[in-house]
């Protein structure tokens, strides 16, 4: 742990300036107590001094001789040494001296007020450093846990993907079961892609020393946008959604034009966005139907996902995209973390897109994703 932060040094220097200018102190030193034995500091580290070298005036054996009471002081002609006491513990020492005259009772009181200020500053500085160290250790523990979980996930994922490949070779393409095997293959590959993105984001954040909260936006926080085939992204998602809807007894319909123009997006990010919205539509629809409709507009493409589920109370709509917000669903038995829609909005923002919500409680919801079409001029130039 650092002896003193720059903020504490700055506060100490300002209090020393006050002693010098207002009380005529010829020398002043602020010490930080490091190590406490039987309520007394075992070591004193200089934080700030005026003039340079003034710390030599404090005898080396002063620390164990310091009074434990904040109202007491070691006083010699022209010099006062006050412990900086916070909540009954000595957190530092203030020394002030002058040679031309002794300190008056009023001046002693003023020095005590300065000492009280410094005591609070030293205690808060120590607490902040402790919190920073605690957060660092917590973060390192989370990193180790994440690394362990990711390592343990990779082997079963590889096994699932291998089994699916073997099944795909043994099931004819015209067999109704083939689409389910294809879905397993695609989703296992999707999970492997996510794990790779987590690794990439984690290593990049460590190299750039990014704060923990900026590390894990999936896909990676810097997205490369390109001409993206929406049908290629949607096809596997529609297969898996249809299968899940079937297990819940829901009707699932997709309305998509035969030809779709390229859109401005990131394939991985768009898969996350649409996957989250389709998953939510099925999850929050106990009975009825889920629909997805794609509409091509002159400059954009709109993807509307409609359900006949629980709907969203009007009071929840303004917080819908807040992280960890689940509204009334937080009190239901429907699993969820409350971060899916936050990720959706963040990723759409990075793809220069937007999302609109139309919902009424107990009447279902419509989430509409709007993305820009890839400029036709750039498509022609690339050919």
Mean pLDDT: 80
The top-level CATH class of the largest domain is Alpha Beta
Please, how many helices? 9
CATH architecture of the largest domain: 2-Layer Sandwich
Strand order of the largest sheet: 2-1-5-4-3
Q: Helicity range of the residues?
A: 40-55%
How many separate domains make up the residues?
Answer: 2
Largest sheet: 5 strands, antiparallel
Tell how many strands the DSSP assignment holds.
12
Task: Provide the low-confidence segments as ranges.
Answer: 56-65, 67-73, 212-221
Tell me, briefly, the overall form. elongated
CATH topology (level 3) name of the largest domain? Heat Shock Protein 90
**What sequence of helices (H) and strands (E) makes up the elements?**
HEEHEEEHHEHEEHEEHHEEH
Derived structural class: alpha+beta
Fourth CATH level, the homologous superfamily of the largest domain: Histidine kinase-like ATPase, C-terminal domain
Radius of gyration, CA atoms, in whole angstroms? 33 Å
Word description of this protein:
With 383 residues, the chain is an alpha+beta fold. The chain has two domains: 6-132, Beta-Lactamase; 228-383, 2-Layer Sandwich (Heat Shock Protein 90). It has helices spanning 6-23, 62-65, 105-170, 178-208, 230-247, 267-283, 314-317, 340-350, 376-382; strands spanning 27-37, 40-50, 74-76, 79-86, 89-97, 226-228, 251-255, 263-265, 289-296, 300-307, 354-360, 364-372. The strands form three sheets. It has a five-stranded antiparallel β-sheet with strand order 2-1-5-4-3. Strand 1 and strand 2 (40-50) form a beta hairpin. Helix 4 packs across helix 5 (230-247) and helix 5 packs parallel to helix 6.
């Amino acid at each position: 742990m650092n002896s003193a932060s720059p903020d504490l040094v700055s506060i100490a220097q300002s209090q020393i300036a006050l002693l010098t200018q207002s009380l005529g102190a010829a020398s002043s030193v602020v010490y930080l107590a490091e190590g406490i034995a039987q309520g007394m500091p075992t070591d004193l580290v200089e934080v700030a001094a005026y003039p340079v070298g003034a710390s030599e005036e404090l005898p080396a054996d002063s620390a164990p001789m310091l009074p434990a009471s904040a109202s007491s002081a070691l006083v010699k002609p022209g010099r006062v040494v006050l412990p900086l006491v916070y909540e009954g513990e000595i957190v530092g020492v203030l020394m002030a001296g002058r040679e031309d005259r002794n300190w008056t009772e009023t001046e002693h009181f003023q020095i005590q007020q300065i000492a009280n200020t410094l005591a609070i500053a030293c205690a808060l500085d120590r607490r902040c450093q402790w919190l920073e160290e605690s957060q660092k250790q917590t973060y390192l523990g989370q990193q180790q846990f994440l690394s362990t979980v990711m390592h343990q996930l990779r082997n079963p994922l590889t096994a699932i993907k291998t089994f699916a490949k073997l099944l795909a070779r043994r099931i004819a393409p015209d067999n109704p079961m083939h689409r389910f095997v294809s879905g397993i293959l695609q989703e296992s590959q999707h999970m492997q892609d996510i794990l790779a993105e987590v690794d990439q984001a984690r290593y990049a954040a460590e190299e750039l020393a990014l704060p923990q909260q900026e590390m894990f936006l999936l896909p990676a926080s810097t997205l490369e946008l390109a001409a993206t085939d929406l049908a290629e992204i949607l096809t596997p998602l529609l297969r898996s959604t249809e299968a899940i809807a079937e297990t819940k007894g829901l009707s699932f319909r997709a309305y998509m034009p035969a030809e779709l123009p390229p859109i401005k997006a990131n394939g991985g990010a768009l898969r996350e966005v649409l996957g989250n919205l389709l998953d939510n539509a099925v999850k929050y629809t106990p009975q009825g139907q889920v629909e997805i409709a794609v509409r091509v507009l002159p400059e954009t493409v709109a993807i509307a996902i409609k359900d006949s589920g629980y709907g969203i109370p009007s009071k929840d709509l303004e917080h819908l995209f807040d992280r960890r917000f689940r509204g009334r669903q937080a009190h239901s038995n429907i699993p969820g973390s409350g971060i899916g829609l936050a990720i959706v909005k963040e990723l759409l923002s990075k793809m220069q897109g937007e999302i609109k919500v139309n919902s009424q409680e107990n009447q279902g919801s419509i989430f509409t994703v709007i993305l820009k079409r890839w400029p036709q001029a750039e498509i022609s130039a690339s050919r």
